[in-house]
Design goal:
By secondary structure, this protein is α/β, with parallel strands linked by helices. The protein contains nine helices and twelve strands.
Length: 239
């Protein structure tokens, strides 16, 4: 028996979704707990201390955004929102409210499981505090404020480095435009999205990153950006 299998709490009022996720997650070796409403989910979160929470927003007793807000008052457990709500405002509200990632229904189970693995890996390894972070051939060295691509140093402006470093510290996670703008440009610039678009455009040019088929920086339309977690070529090829 595995004693350290991660525990995942699924808070969703749809029994079919819970069953589907329970089967899919258990097949990957995870222990699964279920809550059919917000109150039940918060109770499970407090008593069982899960390693990850999968949270629906459309719950019968309270809105999922409220559940997230209450959970964040006493816990930093990773939260993956899984919701039919696809509007930019809902995504931004959840991510700014403390969600670590957001997947809309209907969803592909393989992408969902990949997002779960990323969040569990980050939580377990503390990689957000690592001295450097890599996305395939791209490496961000926080100690020396140095960025290399395939071993060659990439010259970046201060703002370009700060944006890339912020994404690297949250590898695989979506950072909202407002969060990036406030953290890098200051609290008064939360709506100045054109500043961020220009910097991301320059970053993509310097990293030879095609926005239509990105290797590194993915745009989450209307929400923000995410730096892909990519294995080095030597690790990803088995041939």
């Amino acid at each position: 028996m595995t004693t350290n299998q991660p525990t995942i709490l699924v808070i969703d009022d749809e029994a079919q979704i819970r069953k589907f996720l329970r089967i899919s997650l258990a097949a990957q070796g995870y222990k699964v707990l279920e809550g059919s409403n917000g109150s039940e989910g918060l109770t499970h979160a407090a008593l069982a201390k899960p390693d990850l929470v999968v949270l629906d927003l459309g719950l019968p007793d309270m809105d999922g955004q409220t559940v997230l807000r209450e959970l964040r008052e006493w816990s930093q457990v990773p939260v993956l929102v899984l919701s039919v709500r696809a509007s930019e405002s809902e995504k931004v509200l959840a991510l700014d409210g403390g969600a670590n990632d957001y997947v809309t229904k209907p969803f592909g189970i393989q992408e969902f499981l990949a997002r779960v693995r990323v969040l569990l890996r980050q939580a377990g390894s503390g990689e957000q505090q690592a001295a450097s972070v890599s996305s395939g051939p791209l490496t961000v060295d926080f100690a020396y404020r140095r960025v290399t691509l395939e071993g060659a140093e990439v010259a970046l402006t201060r703002k370009e480095y700060e944006v890339l470093a912020a994404l690297a510290r949250h590898l695989g996670r979506v950072l909202t435009q407002q969060q990036l703008l406030k953290d890098i440009w200051g609290p008064s610039h939360g709506e100045d999205s054109h500043y961020l678009r220009v910097v991301v455009g320059h970053l993509r040019q310097k990293l030879s990153d095609d926005p239509t088929a990105p290797r590194f920086i993915v745009t989450e339309a209307g929400v923000g950006y995410r730096l892909l977690e990519v294995l080095p070529a030597s690790c990803s090829s088995n041939s």
